[in-house]
Amino acid sequence: MKEWQILLSGSGGQGLGLAGKILAEAALYRGLHAAHSQSYGARARGGYSDSGVVISSAEIAFPLIEKPNLLLALSPEAYHKNARSLDKDGYLIYDTDIDSAVQEKNARGFPITKAARETGNERGAAILALGIITGLFDIIAPKDGERAIADNLPAQFIEPNLQCYRRGLEMAGQVTPGDHTGTAP
Amino acid sequence: MNNLKEIDQYLAHKKLPHMWCPGCGNGVILKHLLLGLAVLGIPREKAVLASGIGCSGRAGDYVNFHRFQGTHGRTLAFATGIHLSNPELTVVCLMGDGDCGAIGLNHLLHAARRNINITAIVANNLNYGMTGGQYSPSTPEDSLTSTSRQGKTGAALDLCRLAAEAGANYVARSTVYHVREMHKYILEALNTRGFSMVELLTPCPTYYGRYNKIGDAVQMLEMFKEKAIPLNKFQNMEESEQQNHFWRGVLVRKNNPDFYTRYRQKEAVQ
Amino acid sequence: MTNMQFLQGNEACTLAGIAAGARFFAGYPISPATEIAELSAKLLPRHDGIYIQMEDEIASIAAVIGASLGGMKAFTATSGPGFSLMQENIGFAVMAEVPCVIINVQRFGPSTGIATQPGQGDIMTARWGTHSDHSIVALAPASVQECFDLTVEAFNLAERFRTPVIVLTDATIAHLRETVSIPDTVKTVQRARPSGPVENYRPYAPAANQVPVMPNYGDDYILRVTGLVHDEAGYSSADPEVAGTLVNRLINKIEKYTDELPEPEYAGPDRPETVIISYGISARAALSAARRAKQQGRSMGVIRLRTIWPFPEKFITDICRSAARVLVVEMNKGQLLREVRAAGITEAYGLNRTDTRVIMPEEILEGGVLLE
User: Where does the Thiamine pyrophosphate enzyme TPP-binding domain lie (chain B) (predicted)?
Assistant: First the structure.
């Protein structure tokens, strides 16, 4: 495994910081090294927000995202801000609601926010995206993702977020294998 | 009350005589503070005298018990830490009017608001003596000082009323002329649990008295005798008349629980 | 036994303080240091400790100093604007020899700057922010693990040397989450206590290691503390001999014992052609760059400072002596570079950033190439 540099981006309130922490902790359960960083400031006020996770089988020298090889974009701003920095062989997962002409070669759109809303938990969009990422890429195991969700949320929020996560896993399962799946480029 | 023997145990005899000017009231204030400790039987090792920077701040050099002298204006903030780290100590802060009322005013308000179990003694000599007689917040309007040769602009600040409003349990004011009253107030303050403050008007014949042509120390004491009037009398005066007088008396006497007691109660609930 | 936790730098600093024996925190809310206050407020009462939120940073460090004199290990945490406000009282703690720890989570400045963005611009503030001649100890963690380890070390050094110790983190490390190994117990140092007859005790009479032994307020040994020049008994003095002796001792008690401070870490070949000197988050980029340089067959070594002050001059000059190129990487305009040059490495260059962005490994690789 090479190093994953995963940038989760979108808007404040979508739970990107928490999703990043959950992703990193699920990687730790698998015995990998992980570092998690997140943007501060407008995060709670609805502006642009992101969260970076570096995951590696080796010790991590530099813990921040240099050039993401997996980018999640949940808002138009997040897409426009970050798409150019994506590694040339990197993957892009975006919310089809962002309504942009996405041109990146390894890009795949999902109705992430809409699907989260349908589960009754729109604020679980980033967790749902985490389910998609878990399903598409060999980064974390689904059981570790679920365990990290349970570890990080107050009791009453665990079930709604597990629902989002599992919905994401299902959506990833509908993708033709080999299309947008893989290990770190 | 005048028995110096009682305060022997608290004095650093080797350091005397003190450096204060002839006629200064700081020695009288220190004596009655030490008498207060003696009357209450507070052992040397359980008392801390925290003083400020300025004339009164030098008091720490003349005592032989735990002494603290921090930076200008911050005495109450340092003392807050001293008290909270060992609530068994009797912590007395001795500050000047510039120290406590200008640079340190914020700390006075918040120490009073928290109702920290500390006694603050403010030696108000109506100016900055150590630096040569500049006006302070408590200098009366129109007074002459080395930085107000045409008379001070702006009214004097009443520190006691601020401390009372902020939440102190005990606030009183007197002068070094009214020795018995001063002695009583210091004792009452030391006996208060929570924030207590005694402001004491004290003569600075070297600067304030000289600049304002009041005369020597005796004449300054006579000024306090004449112009420092009981609180109830003062409160019945017209504002214009009040400006020419100082009040003395007990402004607040309460028994609200102090910060440390309330903090420990709250945390015990968790 | 150790316990692995996935923590932010600010959390690790707080847990370290408590593990090192801190029982008092006084602070004032400021980004990006607030989590240290919040976690201290939550945890300290469980250890019979005290959290108090003061009216400003001046009062915060004052209360910390007071609590230390009362016998509690004490700390505060702040960032640039608050660190500036604390300077007068940090100098007081130097003069009065009061152990305490100040965690300065560096943010982008000057002035209010950008409250949530990192910087490394307080290197010289830590050294010379308070007036007049003195020595100071400042440590700089480069990982969340080191936020824990070096904060513990900071408390130990504060007690050992009776002096304020500054921990210089930054907004990035403060909010970065990494795995931290937290031991059940850590090695702690307690301040040396007086013994012998109470009457003969002099609070500022130095022991053999030049540090006076210290009672608490409330002990039978009487403690006289002042920021005025003072004699060994703790009484103020204006004697030139007393003043000169005191200032020399305050400096020598630290500068003559620098072998007790955390050494820099060197990673790289024995005789590197290029040496990168860095600290904090920038050093992480340097280490990553050196790894890639090695893959490219280039000879690059990294000196990562853990103690910033006193500046580890000998360690650095020993390694740099044979190097063809020395690059000092830091998120300021070359504050440590001046120190490297002053140490005789006059050909050292700076790789600097002052635009809130963290320096990236590729920039350092390119910087190294440009020098080649």
Answer: 53-199
